[in-house]
Design goal:
Blueprint: E1 2-4, H1 10-19, H2 25-34, E2 45-52, E3 55-63, E4 67-71, H3 79-85, E5 95-99, H4 100-110, E6 116-130, E7 143-145, H5 151-164, H6 173-185, E8 189-194, E9 197-208, E10 211-219, H7 228-242, E11 248-254, H8 258-266, E12 270-282, E13 291-295, E14 301-308, E15 318-325, E16 331-339, H9 345-351, E17 360-365, H10 370-384, E18 392-393
Parallel strand pairs: 4-5, 10-11, 16-18
Antiparallel strand pairs: 1-2, 2-3, 3-4, 5-12, 6-11, 6-12, 7-8, 8-9, 9-10, 13-14, 14-17, 15-16, 15-17
Helix pairs in contact: 3-4
Amino acid sequence: MIQDVTDNDLQRVRAFLEANLDSSLFLLSNLAMCGPRAGDHPNSGNFRLAEDAGRVVAVFCLTRRGNLLVQAAGRADLAEDILGACDGDPFEVTGIVGEWLTAHTLWNLLCVDPRFEPSHSEKDLLYSRALTDNDLSGHSDSVRFLRPEDFEDWEPLNTAYFAELNHSWQATMQQRKEEFESRARARRWWGAFDGERLVAIAALNAVYGHLGQVGGVYSRPEDRRQGLSRAVMRSVLADSRRHHRFDRLVLFTGEDNAAARRLYESLGFEAGSAFGIFLGSRRPTPRSQQRYRWAGQSGEIYTYEIHDWPTRLSPGPGNYIFTCSEGPDTWRPLLIGESTDLSALSVHERLRSGRHAVTHVHVRLNFNPVAVRRREVSDLAARWAPPGSEAYSE
């Protein structure tokens, strides 16, 4: 059985994730930072759990970025139910991140969707290393913590890193700047410099307790084979012990990335289980070519786009009418309303009741203030949802 994670579930959810700690860091870090419900942060999302005989057997979260973070301890048989549970979220799955067996099974299911375009599929090895006070002497003079004002130097290097991995950015430039500055203030970005030029970078991508996950280790091809990534990593080891008081670090690298594996193994990291990182994108849903003109009680005409129901709509404020088709260009209104986010209309539809099933939804993007949108609802409801009719407004 799959259910939303409530505050009462947090203790057993954490216990399950901590039992699979190294491959659950993204989930634990996001849960600690954002809580179990979707908020404004792009890494936030609605946490869910799967139970079997009263025990938690899987925890997952679809973030606002579109990444489905999953830990099922190898229970690949849960993949279809996990993906189905995400259908109710207002954002679509565009990536899968988690322990290999379940993540790979989810990815195969996702790729069946003809609207989905895969862009990155990688089987990573999870590496782990204990930290001791002996690591404190490893800091390099050419490496320092990056500061918020380093964004202009960091951004092109980090963009090149993503391009080399064929990853697409899932945030605006302003969101990237704010996220970098926040992590820089927390001393979670390092950089190696050749004079004034930033030549190599590394980061802490996730933190939980005394454990950190390293990522984003990169230098441009022309700057490689000069020991730059090694210097950055030695400083990461030293500062993770000295400043962050970590006992252990983990990281992921491609199973076929022989150079990176040699580097990490030479620094004392030991290979463990497999991890999956899968990314892609959705082809945009074409705009509806059908329109219908609804007349309000005032005589004003409102033009709505027609979509089959259920459907996925783009985020944005607007007005909507759930309808039942009664023939060509003939509609029975069932629910008239407005929403700050049209992509979340499934919540409103589930709350309605009535004899007729919804077959279509009519929508109109409307960026006017909420009071204006509600006047439109009242105008239409006065004509199409009179007292005693099945239709109603909200």
